[in-house]
């Protein structure tokens, strides 16, 4: 397992670990919209598929929101995820600016993200991502939001962008059983504490997992991978409210 840290001025280096899932958030500048219509959203999905193949990144879940998007993705190489996000961001901005006659940046700085422990947090993070439109009151149910991976993971339609994580396959012995089990988990939803931990970790860049998982990661890098002080995450910031609904 490799690990790469991306340095950034006045910010914690980004943590990227090959073969582990990452929860990624990319937001529009000043909370502005990043999609004008369904054509923009379809172009983003097409670019996601293209870049995922090019940079060997498996996407397990996604959602396109009006002013940001989420991904749950596993890079197969140390540099795969940063290169994937860089190429995706540049390609989409070029398309968006050309189509809509605008110039300048579209994104609010660099993407946010964190490493998660799959055994504990893969399914909750998938559910958090795919139910974001429901929390934001954009859809009555996850199945009603066209621009997410929920329909694929719940067995409602096939989505070539989605690459199921090995843990997802343990939900049942058949595709029908797996889909039904996941849909039931999604209907049960997450506790407020689970949602808070997922949100806070992704936006702050702290790894999310058990103490043993965190300790193993910390041994591989000088970059802190979790908060120094124990305790519950602080009250959600305005950024977290805007991004996670």
Distance between the termini: 34 Å
Q: What would you report as the Rg, rounded to the nearest angstrom?
A: 17 Å
**Any low-confidence stretches, pLDDT <50, length ≥5?**
6-10
Helix content: 40-55%
- Individual helix count: 10
Shape: globular
Q: Work out the number of β strands.
A: 6
Strand order of the largest sheet: 4-5-3-6
Query: What class, by secondary structure content?
Result: alpha+beta
Write the H/E string, N to C. EEEHEEHEHHHHHHHH
The portion of residues forming beta strands comes to 15-25%
Mean pLDDT over the residues = 89
Tell me the major beta sheet.
Answer: 4 strands, antiparallel
Question: Could you describe the 3D structure shown?
Answer:
This protein is of the alpha+beta class and 245 residues long. Helix content is 43%, strand content 16%. It contains 10 helices and 6 strands. The strands form 2 sheets. Strands 4-5-3-6 form a 4-stranded antiparallel sheet, with helices on both faces. The longest helix has 21 residues, at 80-100. The model is unreliable at 6-10 (pLDDT under 50).
Question: How do the helices and strands line up, and which of them pair or pack?
Answer:
Blueprint: E1 3-8, E2 11-17, E3 22-27, H1 38-55, E4 57-64, E5 68-75, H2 80-100, E6 112-115, H3 118-130, H4 132-135, H5 150-153, H6 166-169, H7 175-188, H8 192-204, H9 211-218, H10 238-244
Antiparallel strand pairs: 1-2, 3-5, 3-6, 4-5
Helix pairs in contact: 1-2
